[in-house]
């Protein structure tokens, strides 16, 4: 059994459920932070709207995972407001914040001036979400009052992909595996995220995870 106490915001979502599953299988004590009934394997449930979470709610946890996601155009600004709310609630606490990020903000050059989302081949339908998530990351970079790590998945983030048990840990720049692919399953991404939760190896950094 692990002595880590983890909370997962939006645990009922696809990414959140995969992270809960991976954490529980390792013996981590997991609390699902959800608005409705907990449908995951988490051992505990806190039914609370994200925007109502307080420092008192989050203080008991060593790690809080932000797996919040909305996709309707009119709801996209909630990516920024929800992340700000979590950071404000965690200010001054020892609790670490791990954020399930996006791939669109990965850089394409060493100068970090061009992002994947700004390339001609980037799907136009995905651009509004990628843009707001990029802006959220930039706001997160300004926070030194909460210990955060932002984890970008590969460009092809596969909800129904298999769990291979392997992944490649990369940095701020877009990358591919030896086959020239940038893809990862939710299950393998969850492995990388829970590894980071246990190791605390990349505070105040954005890292990326791709499948082998």
UniProtKB/TrEMBL annotation:
A Pfam cross-reference name: NAD_binding_10
GO molecular function terms noted in the UniProt entry: oxidoreductase activity, acting on the CH-NH group of donors, NAD or NADP as acceptor
Domain NAD(P)-binding, residue spans: 11-192
SUPFAM superfamilies: NAD(P)-binding Rossmann-fold domains
PANTHER family: FLAVIN REDUCTASE (NADPH) (PTHR43355)
Name of the protein in its database record: Putative NADH-flavin reductase
